[in-house]
Amino acid sequence: MRLVRAYILVILMCMVVIVGCKTTSPSNPGPAIQLEPLILKSTPDGRVEVTNARELFKAASQYFTRARYKQALELFQEIVEAYPGSKYAAHSSYNAGLCLVNLKLWTKALAMFRDARRRMGTSADAWDALFEIGHCLEELHRWDELSKVSRELFQRGKRALSVRRRIEARVRWGRAEYEQGRWARAERQFKAALADYRKHVGMPSLKDTRYISMAQYLVGEVYRALFSSVRFRLPVDTMKRDLMDKSAFFLKSHSAYLACVRFNHKRWAVAAGYRLGQLYETFYDDMMSAEVPSELDDSERRIYFEELKGHVKHLVVQAIDVYERNLSMSDRLGAADGQWTEKTRKSLERMRQILREEFRPVESD
């Protein structure tokens, strides 16, 4: 048996030599045919296997299709290391990055996609690699780098992206600007993504509303931050302006959150529902903590707050209604154990307590 294996090994080695040689005729030189190199591997049980980039790529792809990402990763990396000049090397590097994404190894995935982009040169596939680089930077919360990558992607590679990827990349760019406090730039990117989505809303690839829901939610967050920054200050003329500004930001934020809820995304709809209730809760808190004229005596102050309560009670009632609706929605979407559901429960209990204690009927003597 050993002798037979030895003969086979010799034959295989001769085949490699023959395939690798270029034979030409002095009178009629033909074109050189570049073939993928072969590698002989000894298995633990003593067998000899012949492998090439094509076969390894096929096997790795099959592992990937079956979600066996660790095995796929090993083979894709083997191709990159053993066949660096092969036509399979660039896409193996890219696919290895996808394996690492599925394994949540974001730093390693980032390095692999950067390698893939370098190997892909100026081909259209290089923009897909840059798109995935942006994905990794988002997961790593490297916002400044993500802004730069996004700008390059939309300045030079926008046309190479599918509609779904273009919208997703635009939302990522907006989030990067939002996380760095550049709210006007963030809103501009979010609104561009939302407009692109509405233009192609019927496409099957856009059924996953994660990123478009995030965009709508973060638009609401921008206006909620502006809404929360406005406090009621004396004199009365200033307080009137504060009320107008706060009401305007309230309505814009409310509209954005409501649109987010309508996408019915498990995470972002419940988060937006909580924020809707919080808008009413915050409005109530800020009204009750507004500056009071110093010239009022104790009796006048009591009358002032009783009058004020009559105007703000509807905010408490509305907050309770929104929180209750959000809990029902979280049950329907299967998000009953999420952080936004827990926040909703706590705020609902607080507003119910305020309604019981601060607005109970006054007993007559």
List the helices and strands and how they pair.
Elements: H1 2-20, E1 38-42, E2 48-52, H2 53-65, H3 69-82, H4 89-102, H5 106-120, H6 125-139, H7 143-156, H8 163-179, H9 183-199, H10 210-229, H11 236-262, H12 266-288, H13 298-333, H14 339-358
Antiparallel strand pairs: 1-2
Helix pairs in contact: 2-3, 3-4, 4-5, 5-6, 6-7, 6-8, 7-8, 8-9, 8-10, 9-10, 10-11, 10-12, 11-12, 12-13, 12-14, 13-14
Question: In a few lines, what is going on in this structure?
Answer:
The chain has 14 helices and two strands, in the order H-E-E-H-H-H-H-H-H-H-H-H-H-H-H-H.
Give a description of the structure.
It is a single chain. This protein is an all-alpha fold and 365 residues long. The protein is 72% helix and 3% strand. It contains 14 helices and 2 strands; from the N terminus they run αββααααααααααααα. A two-stranded antiparallel ribbon has the order 1-2. Helix 2 packs antiparallel against helix 3 (69-82), helix 8 runs parallel beside helix 10 (210-229) and helix 10 (210-229) packs antiparallel against helix 11 (236-262). The longest helix is centred in the last third of the chain and has 36 residues, at 298-333. The chain is elongated, with a radius of gyration of 31 Å.
